[in-house]
Each structure stands twice: as C-alpha cells, then as structure tokens.
Amino acid sequence: xxxxxxTVAANxxxxxxxxRSQLLGAPGALLPLTNFDVAPxxxxxxxxxxxxxxxxxxxxxxxxxxxxERVRLGVAADSDFGLSGNYGKRWAGRYYLxxxxxITGKVNPSIAYMxxxxxxxxxxxxxxxxxxxxxxxxxxxxTMLGHKPDGGLGVESWDxxxxxxxxxxxxxxxxxxxxxxxxxxxxxxxxxxxxxxxxGPLLTRLRERIGGAKVNIPMEVPQQVMLSSLYNVxxxxxxxxxxxxxxxxxxxxxxxxxxxxKQRTVDVNLHFSDTCQIAIGQQFRIGEKWLWSAGFAYxxxxxxxxxxxxxxxxxxxxRYGTGIQYQINSNITAGAAWEFMDAGPGPYSASRxxxxxxxxxxxxxNYLNFASLNLIWKF
Length: 379
Hints:
The chain is mostly beta strands. The chain has one domain: Outer membrane protein transport protein (OMPP1/FadL/TodX) (Porin, Beta Barrel). Helices cover 4% and strands 59% of the residues.
C-alpha cells in the first residue's frame, strides 16, 4: 500500500511514494481470550486454567524523511511478535508450563531510492531485543514418601540480534502496484541457568544436572518473503492482496519443563514446518475526509497435531481487520483500527514421562483482539 510511514517496516521501497516527510504513532493493546478444555485422557489433576491470556500493551513508531525527490530515509520502532500466557498453578498442565512470555522489540532504519517512474527499491537493517520467560511446576508426588508439594522450574533470559530487510515496488500500469519484500532471519541465543525450587528428596540430582549448568537455547525468527499487489478500481476504491511464505521449519528449540528424574536438558525439537499466508483487503474513501479499510488473512499452521506442545500450541490463524481514518487537515490524520484473530483450536496430546504425565485437550476459545489508535503528521 505504501500509504503512510509504516511502510518503513513493511516495504521500505514504498517510502518513495510519500510526497512529504511523515511521522506516524500507533499505540494499542493486545487482548487475548485463551481457554483450554481438558480431555479425559489427561492423567494429572486440575482444571483448564481459566483465561490464560495476558493483557499486553503494543505500539509502533514510524518516521520517513524526504531527503530528495528520489531518496527517502526512514526508521521504525516496533515489535515483530509477542505473546504472554499465565495458566496458574492449579491447571492440569502445570508440569508442562504455568507461565510463559516471549516479547520482542526492534529498531529498523531504512533507505529507499526511486530508480524511475515505475520502480523503487529499499533496504534496511534491524537491531532487536527479545525476552524469554518460562515457568512450570515439577511433580514431587512420585517420591514414594507420600504427597509432596510441587517443585518449580523457572528460566528467564534476554538476548539481542541483528537482521535486515529489502523491498521493491513496481508500477507496471497506471492503477496497479506490486510489492516484493524479504526479511532475513533473526537469530537469538538465550543463555540461562534454570532455577529449581522445592525439589523432593529423589530429585536432588536433577538440581545438580540442570540447575547448576548453563543452558544455551538458540531461537531463529523465520525469514519470510511477501508478494503483494494493490489495484485502484476507482479513485475512491482499491483492492489489495498478499501471498507470503515464512521459514518456520528453522524455529526448532524451546524449553518445555521437567519430564523425568534422569533428565539432563530442558529443550526439545519442535518439528515445525514452513507456512504460507494469503490475504485480501479493500479501502474505500467516504467523501474527502474519511477512509475505511478492511481485510482478511489466512496463515497455515506451522506444526501438526502430533508434534504440537503446550508451550507453543500454534494452529492455523484467521485474521479479520478493519479501521477508519479521518483527515483533520492537510497535515494531520487520525484513526483507529481493530483486528480479531482466531488462532484455532490447537488440539494436542502430549505425553512426557512419569513426572509430567499426559496432557490432552484443545482450546475452546483461542482468540486475540488487537486494538490501536494512529496519528499521522505530514510536514
């Protein structure tokens, strides 16, 4: 679309379509509704954990500077992804996890150049920070000494990484624009010493093997390619679409908790697969001041039911979005947007030895609501 300064993050080549320097701020919130239904095959006691979704502030800041008629400079400060969950200490899957959080933040400076009237190119590099938090309970009930309170496992780590993105924007005919973007993988390397608490007598060696040793877990944010198009049907109505690919098979390791007294590590291969996305959208200008947007996107699941785990129960995703903008004057535009994501039922059946037991079920509600405001200032 390249309609405003947020194109810095989406396709830096689109900055050349902005006729003036521009600043865009977009604060908002993530409101998840995540409820797990426990299946009868589950071997541990406890309920579904209630709504495990955690309210998360979100937002982005984007700036484009018109250096010359052909050159634009820009910078974006936003997040590629992030989500937090808290199931509590009494749910049936507490030996898999009780609380987890994966939050990222990124600064992405870019440059764009208009080669000619029908082709623009752009590129940027990014500096990212990521915080990983994971907590679970450890089953002490099999110590042959009667009932013991649950122990605990906790890990927390920060890491930084670099990446890059490139893009091209073509206008082969008057009312048609085509965009092609590539975003490089971002490699985080989390290092931490697992924190173990309240272990039963027969699990003390576990503390020596795992609690005393530093664990290094790599996490690769997938590279991705996106092909997009926009067609101006009339001066007031446009249609657009995306086709994308993400290299989720590279996203492999993640901590999952304690399975047995002889365990020596806390990570596992997740057996993820690459994903695709298909999206359609429209924009309709109502009079001179109002602009209405709406769209739908489908993302395939990166993991099959057989390999799905409670720590990352990802499924196919259906996204529905809409937004409205009002042009206050020639320099300032204000708007609001909302997106509803159906993250899928995410069914799984996980069995990880005598301590964690078997956890089986699906999500009766697995929805995420994204709400945001936006303000554009042109100068």
